[in-house]
Amino acid sequence: MKFFRLDLLTLLISLFILNSCKNQNAIGLGVQPNQLNGSLITNSTIVTYTVPEDSVITSGPLNKNPLAYFNDPIFGLTVSDLATDINLPNEGAFTLPTGTIFVDSARLVLYYANGFYGDQLTTNYVVNVYQLASRFNGDTAYYNTKKFNVNYSNLIGSLKFNARPTDSIKIFNIISGAPDTLIKVAPQIRIPISTTFVNNDFFNVGSLALGSNAIFNNTLKGLYLTIDKSKTSGPGGIIMVKPTDSLAIYYRTVNGATIDTAVIYLPITKMAASIQHTYTAAIKTELADTGTSRGVVYLQGLAGLRAKISFPNLLTSLRKDLANRDSDIILNRAELVIIPSPGSTIPYQPLPKITMYRLDIAHQRELLQDANAADPRSGGVSVFGGFYSSATSTNGSNEYHFIITAFLQDLLSGKTVDYGTYIAPVDTTNTTSVDFQATSQVAARTMAVGGNSTSPYKMTLNIIYTKIRK
Q1: What is the pTM of this model?
Q2: CA nearest neighbour of 215 among 228, 206, 225
């Protein structure tokens, strides 16, 4: 009898608990086994249009910066110049070598970073180097819209080259007191710098300027690099360079009958990009029309373009066929599928990754629930998505996918208000979390199909949901 009474008590408690849950709002709750009859809807109304990206800080601890002249037939012209500091060796007081100094040559060394975008085959690039007229302050937050004060009357270096971001090169390694040796080095651009500039602004600058890195910075001011538009042939491209570059000075010292060769490196530790986008008439038309959903949206790196996206009829579409007020729905899965516009991926590949984020009530960016590791419903970076899957990859289909189940569920339940939702370019460097801030560190672009209902190609929202009783 003891076991019988225990079973009866358990049954009564269970019935009481289940009955007490009857009137709760069922959206977002777990689904009972007898309710797993999922329904699928696609192409719930999506409104999309192109908007400018926010301005972005291009100085500071960035792992790459763009040097660009890229004339894209669809998007238009993108130009990015670089302003840099220039420092004494070891960023401290420097003592000149003894003896008579003769400068043989000088090279501004720029190391390629990952992310080149554009033409490597036909374009002949010409890069020019000038001296800044005002000091570059590495502690200042410079935005991509910054216009630097440049001494264009004094060209101190220039180089015609082809972009080879993956090809190593060989240079002579200068060893003091020993024969020079030929070594292979990482891919880099080596711009000849005027020896007159090196003599006047380094070796002959005076002991006061060489006695302090801060005084040297104030005296030399910094360098400015720009692609020469009049001498660069072809469509051009966007070259990503590392901030750990340097000015290498090759010189000889003569002490009586002793002649020795050596090299001094003046390090570049900080730089900033000044970026300008000049858009085509087609892009200007898209930016001017934010009142209707557009059939194509434009996503562009280097703080260029993003797309605003909304789901105005989501609630109506999902609840229109509910039988009575005692029923509601729970989302099992919501997937947004974005494809590049047909023909837009040749000759330039689409962005390898994009992101999706929303604005809070103060119009500040924040992660979607599905991308936020603090939300227990998030599946993490790989589940959230945003990676481009090309047709040539395994199971590829030229698409981007986002899992946004939790975000849409909260919209349905009223837990979240849509103050603005966006898709935008993002760099691929970060693999541990979802990036959502504007960036100047990705160069590619994508023309994606939008939410225009009259277009044969549309952005797709696939939702699997279940009707449940409240």
Answers
A1: 0.87
A2: 206
